[in-house]
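Issue 218. Parser rejects a valid record. Input:
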Amino acid sequence: MPTVSPDYNGKNQCVLYVSTAIIAASLFALSFSFISQLTLHQHTTVTEAYAQPNVETVKYRNLTIDLGNGLKTNAQLTIPTVGEGPFPGVIIFPGAGAGSVLPPTSPYSHMADYLSERGFAVLRYDKRGVGPSFTISDSNAWGNLTFNNLKQDAEKALSVLLQQPEVNATKKATLIGHSEGTNIPPRVAVDNPDKVRNIVLMAPVAEKWTDIIYYQEVAHPLLYAEKLLDKGHTGQISVEEASKDPIFQTMVGGNLTQLLLGQTNVTDNLNGTLSEQNNNTNDDLISIEGVLKPALVREYENETSPNATLLSAKCVAIFGCPSYGKSFSALPSVIGMIGNVSSSTSILILVGENDSQTPLQQALLLQQRLTEVNHPDHLFIVYPDLGHSFAPSNQWIDSHGQMEEYVFQDMFEWLTSPARDLS
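Output the parser choked on:
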């Protein structure tokens, strides 16, 4: 498979493409081809209507998907107005949380518009129990949501997509997952090879969910503390200084002091003042290994191993409830099953080099596994300076901006290349 890089219509961006041929026996022996200023999209033809501001290029149809057992969810099909249908179908599976994918401001709406303007019918739907503007419309559905529910809902949504008159069901569908949503496409593809032609994994998860959460909630904050907050390399940080660092505060849940006060062995009295550390005359300093790490681990364990009380309590937390975490904790890794994806299903892996949530190594693990099983059609692209949301970000925290359009462009070019045969 050749390695190439687009010029993004003159944009001076560098993109790292890794072909299936460059994975060595060891993950850390990977070699890369870093090429820029070439072109991936020489075959692209975009109707002039796309450039005309007053020409409608996309239309929308709102749908309601019946999930079974009286549950329904809102969905929207984005349909091209230029070109002759039926069109190849795409379905998008978003990342974690109760954010609706339907508003125009959603990055997934922008992705759908981009693809539909270029000839794809794209379905987006909200997770069960999700309402508009980060609200919960059904607390029972959301509070008891599990991964099996997500996969079942995905398969129903896929069937709905292929039933739409604007969709060419004979070409099968493309499944796009982002972040936590990348757990879904490989599993749906394995169980429905007659319905899935391509899967696209953006900021993918490879290892078990518990490993990812440990990285996010323990390993990553500890590394930040060691590299940036422990200026004297003493193994200690100042609580006052750390509490004024917005990046670190975000990493630890928004309130470092509250995190530390959850540990009884670091409180001095009922007023919650931090105790003096051993061999330390400064009450403001805490040990990274002895105090900060145990506090972070405790929060990680509460999330990944919820007790019976938490599991039975009503929950409307927008980033997921205990039953959700319990089901993901039991879920086998994607790396353990992606080798079962049919050789007739093409796979595109996209990741930002500065992804602080599902780091680059996750994508490398998937690429390595696909190479080991000799999957014949997969491509891996790394975007320098982009984060988890595919917006410019530093290495420590995601900026949560809109996805860069050149990422959509690469996706489109891959989908419409002769090897995909979706036209």
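Fixed in the parser; the record now loads. Confidence is low (pLDDT under 50) at residues 1-14, 19-51, 264-281.
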